[in-house]
Specification:
By secondary structure, the chain is of the alpha/beta class. It has two helices and four strands, in the order E-H-E-E-E-H. Helix 1 packs across helix 2. The chain starts with a strand and ends with a helix.
Length: 79
């Protein structure tokens, strides 16, 4: 089963690595039900994220490599 991950705009390397690993990647504000979300952690109020509710694990990509984000996503998917 293909997992869907929402990724904040501007995290292109994260998008690319997730796609290469077979995940479906959508925009954070797509309205699609997702299995996890990746945010930049830079400014959570950009795009009014404080009003968004995501019933899935949220991974903060700030200061970590795309590979580390992938590991976090995979760890969250197993629990």
């Amino acid at each position: 089963m293909e997992r869907t991950i929402a990724v904040e705009a501007g995290l292109t390397p994260v998008r690319e690595i997730l796609k290469r690993k077979g995940y479906q990647v959508v925009d954070l504000n797509s309205g699609v039900v997702v299995d996890a979300a990746v945010i930049s952690g830079m400014d959570e109020n950009v795009m009014d994220m404080q009003d968004m509710q995501i019933d899935a694990p949220v991974i903060n990509a700030s200061g970590i490599t795309p590979e580390a984000v992938l590991r976090e996503v995979e760890n969250k998917m197993m629990h």
